[in-house]
Amino acid sequence: MRNDVAAVQALFQKNVVPSYARFDIVLSHGSGSHVFDVAGKRYLDFGGGIAVTALGHSHPAVTAALVEQSRRLVHVSNLYYHEPQGRLAEALVNLIGPGKVFFCNSGAEANEGLFKLARKFGHDEGRFEIITTLNSFHGRTLAGIAATGQDKVKKGFEPMMPGFRHVPYNDLEAMRNAISPATAAVMIEGIQGEGGVRPVAPEYLLGLRRLCDEKKLLLFMDGVQDGHFRTGRFQSFQRILEPGPQASQPAGSGGMPAAGNAEPGGSANPQTRMSAPQFLPDGISMAKSLGGGFPIGAFWARAPYADLLGAGTHATTFGGTPLGCAVALQILDVIHKENLADNARKVGELLYQGLQRLSHQYPAIIQNVRGLGLIVGFELAPHIPNMPGDVNKTQAVRFVNLLHAAGLLTIPAGATVVRLLPALNLRAAEAEEGLKIIGLVVAKLAG
Ligand SMILES: Cc1ncc(COP(=O)(O)O)c(C=O)c1O
Question: Is 115 in the pocket of ligand 1 (CB under 6 A)?
């Protein structure tokens, strides 16, 4: 097959549903945190396939797991038992807490499962409603777009599936006021990813837990993007509730949203710190980095609720295949053996501090930096006079295009935020290399 840019793009234009706004890059192969296009240009990958390629590209342990397991058993259906699914479920339960796991194929599907769990939970009392937050993102299925707190994903697909409402993020009073006799559950992201890398305040998390207990609601966390050790802990809430100030989100810097009832800088509050270790949500959705590029999703449900989904109530053909589970187990093993949670924390801090320096040096270009570990976002000024590119495109897309030209892949979030979601094994030298590229682009824009 011809492998040049125009030929591949022509194949897409003729045959692929045009639902994605793609960049003009045709990728061919990758290794570690680098990918190469069909012309041989090398890119440093800070996008990580949108928080997916946990071990980077072509990791030998992933290849070995794929080869080894595919020689033994690829798929059998969930009519039968097999060891890899049982072992992966056990590993996830050990990382979170007492409960059980359901396997599926994507983040949207993991959330769908939790939505069904909430409906089953509230069914006999006529409760079905799920409250989520504004600017959230929960996937592109019909329930996913109904749950997502952004109008742009709903447009053209109305009427929305009933039973979802949105309230401002980090505003406990707004959540309390929104609860109705029909409410069964609440879902939030620990760090809103698509919404612009916005971490939740610890007091808000703990307040939500108390509120859900008081009103007999399930509390769900969508850990699809910010989970799987990206923040330095398995789930972002575990990192957010750690004692002591969060280095990457000093109070007042904009790193920690100060909305509603959440107290900015409240991480020093001893009461918060005492109750934090007991915090557990009732359900957590996972996908993305779980399979490192092999499609697998899952949700964990807390012990008393996991059994609500009895035989025949929920299923998916490809959920938790031997192959997918073997890959996910291998990824967990590498993360553990190579201490990649610590790496995410350290290298993430390096990125965060480097971006902070740039934002202090060029405040007219970078207005804000947010994030924890290897989920970092920087907010561009809404209008940058020297910004080249198509004026119909957002500042974020135009900036990302400049980074592409300079050899760095990153991900836009909304109109003005650029996200970094690299592999968990990103090296410090690679982080420095990426910062240098961002710095050169910013300096040029500043004129
Ligand atoms: C927080 C969150 N939830 C759900 C999803 C949907 O996941 P998927 O694209 O695998 O369906 C995403 C995807 O970006 C996400 O970021």
Answer: no
pLDDT at 249: 53
Ligand 1 binding pocket mutation candidate from 288, 316, 417, 419 (most atoms within 8 A of CB): 288
Q: Give the model confidence (pLDDT) of 200-231 as tens digits.
A: 999 999 999 999 999 999 999 999 999 999 99
- Determine the residue of 53, 133, 225, 228 to mutate for testing ligand 1's pocket, defined as the one with the most ligand atoms within 8 A of the Cβ atom: 225
What is the predicted pLDDT for the residue at 447?
A: 87
Whether 148 is in the pocket of ligand 1, judged by its Cβ within 6 Å, is no
Helix (H) or strand (E) holding 125: none
Q: What is the distance in A from the centroid of ligand 1 to the CA of 225? A: 6
Q: What is the dihedral of CA 89, 95, 100, 103, to 10 degrees?
A: -50
Which residue has the CA at smallest separation from atom 4 of ligand 1?
Answer: 138
Give the pLDDT confidence score for residue 294 in this predicted structure: 98
The ranges of the chain with pLDDT < 70 are: 1-3, 245-277
CB 126 within 8 A of CB 158: no
189 lines ligand 1 (CB under 6 A): yes
Residue-level pLDDT at 271: 43
Q: What is the pLDDT of residues 367-382, one digit of tens each?
A: 999 999 999 999 999 9
Length of the chain: 447
- Report the atom number in ligand 1 closest to the C-alpha of 194: 16
Q: How far is the CA of 107 from the centre of ligand 1 (A)?
A: 5
The amino acid occupying position 404 is H
Determine the pLDDT at residue 272.
42
Helix (H) and strand (E) counts in the chain: 16, 17
CB neighbour list of residue 397: distance below 8 Å, 6 or more residues apart: 21, 389, 412
Under 8 Å CB-to-CB from 205, ≥6 apart: which residues? Answer: 190, 237, 240, 241, 279
